[in-house]
Write a structure and sequence with these properties.
Helix content: 25-40%
Bound molecules: NADP nicotinamide-adenine-dinucleotide phosphate
CATH superfamily of the largest domain: NAD(P)-binding Rossmann-like Domain
Radius of gyration: 19 Å
Strand order of the largest sheet: 3-4-2-1-5-6-7-13
Shape: elongated
Number of helices: 8
Order of helices and strands: EHEEEHEHEHEHEHEEEEHEH
CATH topology of the largest domain: Rossmann fold
Length: about 260
Amino acid sequence: MSLRLAVTGATGRMAQEVVAEADERGDETLAVSRGAERVDGFEVSPADDLPTLLAEERPDALVDFTDPEASVEYVAACAEAGVPAVIGTTGFSDDQLDALRRASDEVPVLHAPNFSRGVAVLTDLVERATRLLPDYDVELTETHHREKRDAPSGTANALLDAIEAERADAGQDSGERVHGREGVAPRDDGDIGVHARRAGGVRGEHEVLFAGGDESLTLAHRAGSRRVFASGALDAAEWLAGRDAGWYEFEEVLA
Ligand SMILES: NC(=O)c1ccc[n+]([C@@H]2O[C@H](COP(=O)([O-])OP(=O)(O)OC[C@H]3O[C@@H](n4cnc5c(N)ncnc54)[C@H](OP(=O)(O)O)[C@@H]3O)[C@@H](O)[C@H]2O)c1
């Protein structure tokens, strides 16, 4: 099925991957930007006109990889116009996430901090390791390119949430999320160390270390290019188009 998609943040790295991937799939894109009028050869509509564009063009979905404040505004426009929204932006506050959830009363909304299939499998494996290695120390390290704004990454937070949820189900104390260490900083039982590295052009790496007395296990994922996230987001858009209003997860797309 070929789609018609609004793509926000047109000057952004992810939006350009989404447009390129959509082009390869034969999907049509309506690119939207706060400032630019043209991006690398394709026409762009102003973000201020998004409500009109959605109402007149009625795309199958909007795909958004921008900034939390902008995403909340764009999803509100989707709710108004009845357009499904696929959101890849990370770094939302609880209030901003509530705003996205409110929009899902009106239209289908799917937010995922990571649209890679490999990371979905990593999350499953991390949950399994948490269950089977209950007393092991856990340390999470993520690495991203130097321009990434939020830390730790949305994917790291989702992995931490998954570990804590598994521990809670097992009646186990999760301790604190300890962000880096300095000086005299012994580890307390149950704490999860969190380390965010920012360097060069790294696309996205996540590694979870489970260490017991005499052994350690490392589960890791590396994204080779941004295309993997664009591809997952377009799979999500295809899956979401035409569904009832509601809040959906990327795992449902993969299932
Ligand atoms: N879910 C996933 O799989 C996944 C994968 C990679 C990245 N991400 C997330 O996707 C988001 C975008 O990443 P990116 O690497 O594409 O970022 P980027 O290159 O900085 O692009 C973001 C674009 O968003 C637009 N924007 C609108 N309002 C903005 C604001 N208030 N501040 C800054 N930019 C604003 C801008 O485009 P215009 O000026 O053209 O509107 C900007 O170029 C980030 O939150 C990142 O963490 C998610």
